Amino acid sequence: MIRDDTDDTNDPDDSSTAFDTQTVLPDGGTAAGEDDVALDPWGSATVSDYRKLFEEFGIEEFDGVLPEVPNPHYLMRRGVIFGNRGYRRVAEAMQNDEPFAALSGFMPTGEPHIGHKLVFDELIWHQQQGGDTYGLIADLEAHSARGLSWEEIDEHSRDYLLSLLALGFDAEEGTLYRQSENRELQDLSFELGSKANFSEFQSIYGFDGETNVSHVQSVVTQMADILYPQLDEPKPTVIPVGPDQDPHVRLARDLAVRMRFFGVTEAYASFELNEDEQKLVAELYRTLDSADFDDDSLRCVHVAQAIDGMTPDELDVDAETVSSAKAKLDEAGMEPLRPRVRFLDRNATNEAFDALIDAIDGEKRVFDEHIDVFDYSREEAEELAREVEMENDGYGFIMPSSIYHRFMTGLTGGKMSSSVPASHISLMDDPQDGYDKVKSATTGGRETADLQREKGGKADECPVYELYAYLLSGDDDEFATEVYEECVGGERLCGGCKEQAAELMKEFLEEHQEKREEAEELLDELDIQLESSRR
What positions carry the motif 'HIGH' region (predicted)? Predict the structure, then answer.
């Protein structure tokens, strides 16, 4: 469920050092009591070392893009939002007051709790920054993957929507829908399904012969959810999620590309090079001089000769790349090596391909399945390709972006689970029950008060400190920093710290539930079907 092209690295902002801990840590340190990395959208939401997500799955550190985000949310500033895919595009849209969107979905399998509040807050913040914002009820997934009845789904859906509205989602400015009642979404899902196959679902999700077909269909529907904000116009779109949902994001980014009429790449000759070959040829084009070959143009055969006289170590590529690049260059012979931008025909109709040819100004070379141009930058070519695609009934999708937040540790230690009431606080809990759960929570304190005063508490292993950093401090970084420093400095003892957190939690729940009651009338007036037509 969606619940809940960058290459950026930067030093963490100095103001975040108070949160440089295992649970709230920009460099992705270990969270106590959690299991190894397992990105399963329907499994246990745990990650033992967030750094592995950067190394193994290509998620980028959020610190690299944070300086470019206008008015960043406190979850961003404190490192709770730790990673991203392609978020710079969204940040640039905010900076330039250009259209962008945010979408997240909620699988209604139980009561919304404080872990879900992270996603609610991220969605609402993007709305406040001017984004077109979408909140969806993933009822098809709840029914197919979790086996909930439509009556149960309806009940839980109402609870999620009430909390979303109570926390500040503007339903007049945003869009709310449920998967099962959105025909436009289902039509898009059908189109996306033609670009996916079961073997990759096996690889990504571990589906096998026992997986029911409705579950497979629900995944394609989620891909349509992610791209749904771009149906009217292509725009940067962010999906705020926990890292367990990254497989959905990666597949959606792939499908967005597969749906495009044209690909746009850079090239140096009429033939295709893979990424490693392209880097090699680009470097040689930059360093070789045609005069050294007694010619006024640098030709493919010249570059092949240069490669022949160098070792893979000198070229800084593997032997296979050297061999394959040289073979292509040799075959091209005397063709001049000349940088160009290439339009690749992916899914274009004949009419769209002809329209692109007509739309290109200046020198161009037309082949059966691609067009080479010499007077366009890559950015200009991408803009033209999308424009022609849109004019010829294509979607013109931009690859969706994502941001990833850390999982909240359960109040009893380990993971927070909806099925273990003591481990989480429901947004619908009686305020006194919320108070009592915090008072009973596991802490990162020392064995005795004297030892805590001497050595300081272990805030980086404390679920109660997480409550301050993720929720109870709100936008007040100074207060969250104070709690952290007093704890690790030995000034703050667990009893008083839990009492303060419990009182703040009680106040939060009282206020939230008052706002939920106020949202009841608004919800009934919204253009969203609260009772499933499938009941």
Answer: 108-116
